[in-house]
Specification:
- There is one protein chain.
- This protein has one domain (22-117).
- It is built from two helices and seven strands, in the order αβαββββββ.
- It has helices spanning 2-17, 30-33, and strands spanning 23-25, 42-50, 54-61, 67-72, 89-93, 101-106, 109-117.
- It has a seven-stranded mixed sheet with strand order 1-4-3-2-5-7-6.
- Residues 1-17 have low confidence and may be disordered.
């Protein structure tokens, strides 16, 4: 009985912490978050899904912690929204047209959805 209670407590703690992993980013901060990055240790930006209030993203690095951010849905209109945790897609931040479709625009700059899913 005691071990079941501890397991449930740990499970609820892990589920409850998911949202707290993400720092909230304001609309005016978006262009500073999604920058073109050519560092060899940078693995890319990923859209991880949305819930009723936020879109969730991560910037991933080989040798340091990932940066996870959430943006209010009213602050960023995106194409192809899906539920958080159900999938993820890579994003490319370029000023030049690339292969892929526009996922969103930040300060008039397109962010492209990569053709492949991770």
């Amino acid at each position: 009985m005691k071990s079941s209670a501890i397991f449930l407590l740990l499970l609820f703690t892990m589920v409850g912490c998911k949202d707290s992993e993400y720092s909230q980013v304001q609309k005016e901060e978006l262009s500073a978050v999604f920058i073109m990055n050519s560092s060899p240790t940078f693995e890319g930006y990923y859209y991880e899904g949305s819930d009723t209030e936020f879109h969730y993203f991560s910037g991933r690095w080989k040798y340091q912690g990932d940066r996870k951010v959430k943006v209010k849905k009213v602050d960023l209109e995106i194409n192809d929204e899906f539920a958080l945790g159900s999938d993820e897609i890579g994003l490319t931040v370029f000023n030049l047209p690339t292969t892929g479709t526009i996922f969103c625009e930040i300060d008039g700059r397109p962010v492209y959805r990569e053709n492949h899913k991770k």
